[in-house]
Amino acid sequence: MRKLFSSRAVVTIIIAFIVIVGLIAGSNWWAKRTNQPPFIQRFGNDLAGGVSRVISVPTTAIGRTANSIGNLLDTFEENQALKSKIDEFAQDKVRLQTVEEENASLKKQLKLEATLTDYKTVSAVTISRSPSTWQSQLVINKGLNSGLKKGMPVLAGAGIIGRISEVNTTNAKVALISDTSEDANRFAITIKGENGDVNGIVTSFNREKNQLIMGQVTSDNKIKSGDLVETSGLGGVIPSGLYVGKVASVSKDDYGLSKRINIEPAADLGNITTVVVAVSEIGAQ
Amino acid sequence: MAFWQLTRLRVVYPVVLVFLLFVDGSLMAGMGGIFTAFPWYILPTLTLGWLFYAVQFEVEPDVPLWLYVIVIGVLFDMYYTGIFGTYTLAFAVAVAVMKQCHKVLDERLLSGLSVFLIGLVSFLVVTYVAGFIIGIANVSLTTFFMFEVLPTVILNTVIVALCYYPTLSLFQFLR
Asked: Which residues in chain A (194-233) have CB-CB distances under 8 A to chain B?
């Protein structure tokens, strides 16, 4: 029988395997430690971002058209449901404006400069999205030049979708919350329960159910499905009060000692054409 | 270089390869709503399709294929994931597997498609295993095959089949 591999080939394969595993593990470790990629990588990414920007024009247009056609089909029912909600929102908006003004004047009296709820926003357009199994990342058209930093939260539509994972000069990458790498979704959140708030962090994302998981919760405060979840602002970089989602269910962890809270994220992670990066005024200082 | 040389396969091939790398990303961003509609997770892999055509239509003496495989893998890792190695390996393994299969199977369309299919599955499996190495894999193997590999294979095989004969004529014209 003909030998499938020569001994030289086997040695080469083994060495190649070790090198590749080392490269994957090493670059992953390096990416976590540094705030910015090395100059060559940044330069390459800026160049690639430029090409991507041109190519994304027609594909984004096609995608938008497809979405518009999809939306058109259920416009009538949606319109009726939205009309009933709109009056409610107008009232809330007026109230919010009054409260904001009051809040600003009270802060002035107390001589408070910036608190956890103060943040500026930088809006950006998605130019690409990694077509990869893991590391689901977006590439957006703002970077170091617009003052973005690694770790800043990114919002789209209804709520938070992830955080900045890499900053190049003219573009940046956003790691989505659906990604389980540690940088992507470990942010401090708070749940507005009936008898008090429950604080904790997002510990993982269940891709099979499309839910965020807040694990190791030992608080006795009652939480029920439908309770609102928002960022707590603890930790500094992420401002408080960003909408994350709603509680879907509460279960015991594997050992029965603490609670595990499953959260339905508010933002749609599929269609993300424009995003808003929230720059905390305290974290940016 | 005279102008007519720009229309040679060895010039056109790498340009299209890099172009398709960015098209994959743009498609994923533009059509994300359809491709990642829960529970599905479909990846456009036009780049791998273009590499398949190179294997199937035997461009090797004109085009330094392995060099391009490595370059495109490194570019992919740098631009899309920021972690080096995963996609360089995945593209290399997929091309190696497709080359081996191409030796065994004949030149017909259906045999060609099965070569691409095997290459694409190996590509996806390598990325799945790499996810385990750095501890970011959060989907069971069954879900991965049901909701990612299966629809990805269907979509991309259809695209590759549709472009098969046009690409064949293009390669013959450029050679």
From this structure: 204-208, 210
CA–CA min distance A118, chain B (Å): 30
pLDDT exceeds cutoff 50 at A285: no
By C-alpha distance, the chain B residue nearest A23 is B85
In a domain, A135, yes or no: yes
A271 closest CB neighbour out of B19, B32, B83: B32
Q: What average pLDDT does this structure show over A251-261?
A: 82
Q: Considering the domain boundaries, does residue A25 fall inside one?
A: no
Mark whether A107 and A137 lie in a shared domain: no
Could you report the per-residue pLDDT of A24-45, keeping only the tens digit for each?
888 888 877 777 788 888 888 8
Mean pLDDT of chain A: 83
Residues A93 and A153 in one domain: no
Q: In a mutagenesis test of the B interface, which of A30, A133, A137, A140 is the best target, namely the one with the most B β-carbons within 10 Å?
A: A133
* Record: contact B131-A27, CB cut-off 8 A: no
Asked whether residue A166 falls in the same domain as residue A153, the answer is yes
The better pLDDT of the pair A233, A96 is held by A96
Q: Please tell me if residue A249 touches chain B, with a CB cutoff of 8 Å.
A: no
Measured between alpha carbons, how far is A64 from A17 in angstroms, rounded to an integer? Answer: 42
> Which residues in B lie closer than 8 A to residue A165 (C-beta atoms)?
82
* Domain interval for residue A226: 37-73+119-285
Q: Which of A83, A112, A141 is the C-terminal boundary of a domain?
A: A112
CB–CB of B130/A27 below 8 Å?
no
ipTM of the complex: 0.86
Q: Are residues A170 and A207 in the same domain?
A: yes
Out of A27, A61, A130, the one facing B85 most closely (by C-beta) is A27
Residue range(s) defining the domain that contains residue B73? 3-174
Residues of chain B short of pLDDT 70, as ranges, are 1-7
**Inter-chain residue contact B82 with A268, CB threshold 8 Å:** no
What sign does the dihedral A202-B152-A165-A173 (CA atoms) show?
negative
pLDDT, mean of residues A112-127: 81
Q: Tell me how many domains chain B contains.
A: 1
Long-range Cβ contacts of A64-71 (<8 Å, 24+ apart): A64/A273, A64/B30, A66/B31, A66/B33, A66/B34, A67/A271, A67/B33, A70/B33
d(CA A176, CA A246): 18
